[in-house]
């Protein structure tokens, strides 16, 4: 498939090795100025800001950049930055297979709320009491990744898991107070099923069947926790993928409609207009114009 939007893998960003990049953020940013334009990653990506201002856009959702904020991204998400002034912190990029040989559960990372692809769960402000601990973890990671120690990669993996668990504890404290664990697990299972099947399975009742619950139960769960019905959760994921594909100018709208399994182009256009408020062509034009005007 031809592609117009850059898709970066780790080896295109570093000469060191293909599975891991750990760095302070300011030198990384200096080396990769072009990353302020919209791009996709083929790897997991996280940044902890210690200094910074401006904004970033993750999957077409704009969020402010501020000190002591950490964000996480999964492969396939679309991203760009619009920083103001000096920015610093820490960055880790790691490949999909990086943990697979290390962990018995291949999908272990998906258990973390910030590795779901849901932007609101992936941008976390670190409270003052925990900021020094998180900085220390990143400093230890940089030291370990730069020294040629025995079993260095495994030590890095262990330290990264410590970082993930520490941040997850901070981010999940408020969630767990409001959502019963069973409901949270069920919702995550629904979201994972959507992620695997959204091009083929479009109806809430089909997902309810896979989860061994009634469609009413699934709807009530989504309304209670997310404030929207189950059908809207599915449609939002399809619309997000349509947006990701539309910024690739080499794909026609018809090709995108086919890729997302719509019966025809006009049905896809009606669906997109209802979800996004613009036709696919209007969205593509608006996004391209915004890119050019922001980065002249």
From TrEMBL:
Gene3D superfamilies: Homeodomain-like. GO terms for molecular function: DNA-binding transcription factor activity; sequence-specific DNA binding. InterPro entries: AraC-bd (IPR003313), Homeodomain-like_sf (IPR009057), HTH-like (IPR037923), HTH_AraC (IPR018060), Tscrpt_reg_AraC-type_HTH (IPR020449). It comes from the Bacteria. Pfam families: AraC_binding, HTH_18. Transmembrane segments: none annotated. Signal peptide: none annotated. Residues 188-286 form the HTH araC/xylS-type domain. Keywords: DNA-binding, Transcription, Transcription regulation. This is Helix-turn-helix domain-containing protein. It comes from Mucilaginibacter corticis.
